[in-house]
Design brief:
By secondary structure, the chain is an alpha/beta fold. It has a single domain (3-296), classed as Alpha/Beta hydrolase fold, catalytic domain (Rossmann fold, 3-Layer(aba) Sandwich). The chain has helices spanning 11-19, 102-113, 136-143, 148-165, 180-191, 241-254, 280-296; strands at 61-69, 74-82, 88-94, 117-121, 168-178, 197-201, 228-233, 258-263. Helix 4 packs across helix 5. 50% of the residues are buried.
Length: 300
Amino acid sequence: MTDDDRRDPDAANLAADLKSLMPKFEPSRRDAMITTLAAGFALATQPVAAETTITTDSDGLVAGEVRIPATDIEIPAYRAMPAAGGPFPVVLVVQEIFGVHEHIKDVCRRLAKAGYFALAPEMFLRQGDVSQLKSIDEIRPVVAKVPDSQVMSDLDAAVAFAAASGHGNVEKLAITGFCWGGRITWLYAAHNPKLKAGVAWYGRLTGEPSALTPKHPVDVAADLKAPVLGLYGGADQGIPLDTVEKMRDACKQAGKTCEIIVFDGAPHAFHADYRPSYRAEPAKEGWARLLAWLKQHGVS
């Protein structure tokens, strides 16, 4: 019996509850299905800015790839947690447009060093392996085929996996995501009533509805089920500040606990230490605010 075969007394009930939240969907491209996580950094992010890249070791951790049973498939995911103790509060980590590559894995290890069970499921597995594509222009059409309903279902499956493992305490559940994953963080906070806190890093807030993405964060503000901290850049050319104000107003009008911090002069992806967009001070402050937000809302 492996460590992940151990169960806590409430795991079966938690898994059943979470399964009931999962919408049904049809995978769009089974022939492109990902079977394992990317090694290293995504090709589209090369060359990596070695002088600023943060590398977190796995000393004192259990860290590596796991498989999450979902509605139709096993999802590859990266998990990191302390090697001793537990069960630990759970933080779902939602990838950028580049998939679960080395930067997202490192974020998981950083959270594990802070005492969390961090879990990053590969969200694009049915649509394609974006880590092997060489440019953003190649990646966008793949990501555009990922339905929000699929993502919500896969994240529910990740929570059920954490509960069933015996190592994750999903009564203390949070989510954080970057860029594409920042938008998903807001949506998941409106989806899962068991969530305690969310931290969205520069996720898009508005947009035109479509069959696969019927709502955006500003549309679900009234449905938020957990407090959300938004971390945004004042010089982000892809997320206009007027949309940030719209989100603030929508949360206020709905009476929801949301705080949106805008870092003056920071571009999009200011936390991505392996890219030229990295800005050390807002990244460091944003991380400290993340940890404080989780603790403030009972995820510690």
